[in-house]
Amino acid sequence: MDIKLAVFDAKCFFAHFRKHFSTTSSLSYPFPPRTTIAGMMAAILGYDRDAYYPIFSSEKCRIALQIRTPIRRITSTVNYLMTDKPVTLSKLRGIGGQAQVHMEMLVSDTCEPQQLSYRIFFNHEDMDLLKEITERVRRRRFVYPPSLGTMNNIAELEYVDLVDAEIYRPNGEVEICTVVPVSILKRVLPQHERRIFIEELVPADFAEDRKLKREENYIYEGEGRPIKVIIEGEVFRCMLNGDSVVGVFM
Predict the structure, then answer these.
(1) pLDDT attached to residue 219
(2) In terms of DSSP H, where are the helices of the chain?
(3) Minimum mean pLDDT range among 65-69, 88-92, 220-224
(4) What is the pTM of this model?
(5) 131-138: which pairs have CB atoms within 8 A and are 24 or more residues apart?
(6) CB 67 within 8 A of CB 226
(7) pLDDT score recorded for residue 21
């Protein structure tokens, strides 16, 4: 089966994707969950909060993610303003007290300062919606500014291409450049100088009332390099800048 994939890069110097089970401190996933990317698409189009979950469900929308820079975690203390009602000017200025929260932030693990970079592969059964998102990213005309997690981490979106992709079931080993759901993973093949990590309990779908509908465990390579695996499921293959790219949808 052939589909259209919109491909673009999301970049920022800092990112934070809060783990939904984190309580006393704000821990972060190392990459944006599928629900975060869906929210980014909804922000680009100007959809209301909590109104877009059925539109970007896994049944209608395919999303894949490639990590393009090494990731490092740092912990910082963040001051939050107390904005409980009634909201007053003194509270907004921080005079009424502040709440200090330990927050895990993501930065690029490189010698020189560099932006985090994630490559997003996006497909939707509604071709009009897919074309609108593609055009808005290409022209950088967003209804709401996209961010990598929290609102203070405004993302820079770079249009890459709108490509044709083939969906198929591989026979034997395949080299995957995206994060891989454990649910379809059969075996990870050893490779020299590859650091394979697993990230558990990552949100993948919300129900209409914002209740968690589906979550996944994923494996990924620490520096974003491809990994050889044997999987029981579908993969996609496309051409980008003359190179063949193989990935798995989240």
Answers:
(1) 97
(2) 34-45, 89-92, 127-139
(3) 88-92
(4) 0.91
(5) 132/45, 133/6, 133/41, 133/44, 133/45, 134/6, 134/159, 134/162, 136/44, 136/45, 137/6, 137/8, 137/44
(6) no
(7) 83
Tokens of 99: 């709440």
Burial class, 55, CB count within 10 angstroms (exposed 0-12 / middle 13-18 / buried 19+): middle
Per-residue buried b or exposed e for 207-227, using 16+ beta carbons within 10 Å of the residue's own CB: eeeeeebebbebbbbeebebb
Annotated domain spans of the chain: 2-80+97-247
Distance between CA atoms of residues 250 and 246, nearest Å: 13
**Which class for 148: exposed (0-12), middle (13-18), buried (19 or more C-beta within 10 A)?**
buried
Per-residue pLDDT band at 123 (split at 50, 70, 90): very high
Q: Which residues contact 190 (CB under 8 A, 6 or more apart)?
A: none
- Residue 190: Cβ within 10 Å count: 7
Which two structure tokens, joined as six digits, stand for 181?
A: 């759901």
Q: Which two tokens stand for residue 184?
A: 């379809």
Amino acid at 189: L
- Its CATH class, for the domain covering 2-80+97-247, is alpha beta
Q: Which of 21, 59, 52, 64 is nearest to 240 (CA)?
A: 64
Phi, psi of 121 (to 5 degrees): -110, 120
